[in-house]
Design a protein that fits this description.
Length: 174
């Protein structure tokens, strides 16, 4: 028994584009891919930086440039415990914010008790919250890790390390 299939091989119709129209199309495609791409960066903090996060938030992702906004997708924190534990104080929760310690929050409060104060290596995953703000608050602003309470203390040997794995998208608003 034989099967016969009829096929129609019609040439696709490709419109003729001028060089200018082709360049515009290429820019539109590039912008679409730029908006859709998720990037992940690793930021390493020393014990001194961990203990100073309330006074000096740590930049996680640099400001993206004019007419661009960062969208936090997720964050994983990895504590590599030191010789002595870090000490969590009252209200020393962490958060990711835009710009600096006074910026719009991109995450809720990240509880440090039970994480930062452990003698073994620890991992913590964090999901973002809706970040609502004006263009001045969100466009072309960095993402930073901030301690919203009292400074973390302890680890006299200063050998603890905190790694932040930050996943984000960069959107072109132009």
């Amino acid at each position: 028994m034989s099967n016969s299939y009829a096929m129609s091989l019609e040439s696709p119709r490709i419109p003729h584009l001028s060089k200018g129209e082709l360049a515009d199309l290429r820019d539109d495609v590039d912008d679409a891919f730029e908006r859709a791409e998720v990037a992940t960066v690793k930021v390493t903090m020393t014990a001194a930086e961990i203990k100073a996060l309330a006074a000096a938030p740590k930049e996680l992702v640099a400001a993206p440039g004019a007419n661009k906004i960062l969208e936090l997708i997720g964050l994983t924190l990895r504590l590599k415990a030191g010789s002595e534990v870090l000490a969590a104080g009252a209200g020393d929760d962490l958060t990711v914010k835009y710009t600096d310690d006074s910026g719009v929050a991109a995450t809720g409060a990240i509880e440090t008790t039970g994480f930062i104060d452990q003698s073994g290596d620890m991992n913590l995953t964090v999901v973002p919250i809706a970040a609502l703000g004006t263009d001045a608050q969100l466009v072309n602003q960095a993402l930073v890790l901030d301690n919203i309470g009292v400074e973390i203390t302890g680890n006299a040997s200063d050998d603890a390390v905190l790694e932040a794995y930050v996943s984000y998208k960069r959107h072109n608003l132009a």
